[in-house]
Structures are given as C-alpha cells and as structure tokens.
Amino acid sequence: MLNRIKSFIYGVIAIHVLWLSGNYFVDERLIPSPFAVYAQIDIVFLSQMLLHIGHSLWRIFLGMSISIILGLCLGILMAKSKFWKKLLNPLLYFLYPIPKMAFLPVVMITIGLGSPTTVTMIVLIIAFQIMTNIRDGINNVPIENYHTLLALGASNWRLLKDVTLPAALSPILSSTRVALGTAIAILFITETQGTSYGMGFYIMNAFTRINYIDMYAGIVTLSLVAFILFLLIDLLDAILLKWTK
Q: What's the CA gap between 226 and 220, in Å, rounded?
C-alpha cells in the first residue's frame, strides 16, 4: 500500500512539473497554470460542471451495467453450453476485431442522438471484452472443482453459485477496470455529437468558445472522476476477492 501511495505522489509531481514547464515555455493563454485551472474548477463546479458530471456518470453507469450483465450471461453460456459456443463463437471472432466506432454513424441515424447513442456505443465496445474474459476465466476452472460438488449431490444452481460465478468475478472486475478507460473515451467522443450535457460536451464547448481555462478545468475534472471510479473498482476487488489474496 505504501509503495502505491508513493507511486501516486511521484506521478502527481511529474504531471505538475510537465504542466508547469508547458505553462512557462508556451503562451499562458494556451496552457494556463494548474493553480489557475484549479481556481476555475472551484468557481464553476457547482454552477455548471456538476450537472455535466451527473449526465456523464449516468451514461457510464448504464452502459457498463448493461455490458457486464450481457457479458456475464453470454460468457457463462459460451463456457458451459456447446450449443451456445458453436452459435456465438463465429459471431464473436467476426465482430470483435472490427473497430466499433465505425458503427457510430449507423447508431446515430437508427436510434438518434444523445444518451442512447453513448450507452449503445459503450455496450457495443465493452460487452465483447467482458464476455471473452468471463468465458476464458470459467473455462480455466479445474474440472475437479465441479466433480467434488457433484459427488456431494450439488444441484446445477449450487454449481453456478459456488463455482462458476466466483470464477467469473475476477474476470468481471479485471475487464471492468480495463473497460472503464475505454468507456470514458467513448463517452467523450459521443457526447460531442448532438448532446447538450456531459463532460465531453462541456470540454468541446469551451474549446469552440476559445475558453481554454474552462477546457482544462473540464479535462482535469473528467480525469479526477475517472480516477475515483478506478479506486472504487480496486476497493470492490479488495472486498469481493479477499479470498484470492
């Protein structure tokens, strides 16, 4: 834990050194100092930014929740059922390598702009990652774990609850940690298309108004939100997977 705290402090110091160097060598209007940006966040947070954060967090939560539920169900089916494996494997290997952002115009013209587009794009990109990791995690469970419970007369539900779902929990959290960064990138891109709320809209709106200090305030705030979400996933990992440590 101490080493992680030290690494975090060193990272923060390095970022601020680079930031202050850019502020010193480049026009201050283009790269304002971090202290000016923090002061701006304090000014606009409650009056403007909090509403945008709320919309972005809701889109991330909804998109990630659907992706996890869909990925869990399909991942278990692919791992435990030969029928579903034969049905879904070709589809997975055909669609997974395709850059899903290529579907953004299709999604926009079929379901409209705004939150539906953002949530749909998050699901399209992340569900495949989660499904694949869960399938592989369950397939790596030693078959003896099932045989032991079967010998004791365990039902299929007991096997699912005591073996399959615990085996899927670690891939879920690992996939969620990786997918969260992807979801935030998707969020930023899609929130610039036909929306009036969200951190992506806030940042690009400030950029088009040439209000760079507001733009940097939005970038820093979005980064802090992402950092807090990562910490929450690490906390869940420590609580739910304590038995693996």
A: 10
> Tokens 């820093």 identify what position?
220
Would you say 40 and 217 are in contact if contact means Cβ atoms under 8 Å apart? yes
What pLDDT does 54 receive?
92
Cβ neighbourhood burial of 203 (10 Å; 0-12, 13-18, 19+): buried
Q: 35-73: per-residue pLDDT in tens? A: 989 999 988 888 889 999 999 999 999 999 998 899 888
Of 193, 173, 182, nearest in space to 237 by CA? 173
Q: What are the percentages of helix, strand and coil residues in the chain, rounded to 5?
A: 85, 0, 15
CA–CA separation, 77 vs 85, rounded Å?
7
No. of helices (H) and no. of strands (E), the chain: 11, 0
Domain annotation for the chain: domains and CATH numbers: 53-244 (1.10.3720.10)
Closest CA relative to residue 184, chosen from 28, 61, 102, 14: 61
Structure tokens given for 10 = 């060193």
The whole-number pLDDT of residue 180 equals 85
Mean pLDDT of the chain: 83
**Cα–Cα distance between 223 and 12 in angstroms, integer?**
12
**8 A C-beta contact, residue 233 and residue 173:** yes
pLDDT at 147 over 80: no
- Burial of residue 240 (CB within 10 Å: 0-12, 13-18, 19+) is middle
Across residues 93-120, what is the average pLDDT? 81
Distance of CA 16 to the CA centre of its chain: 25
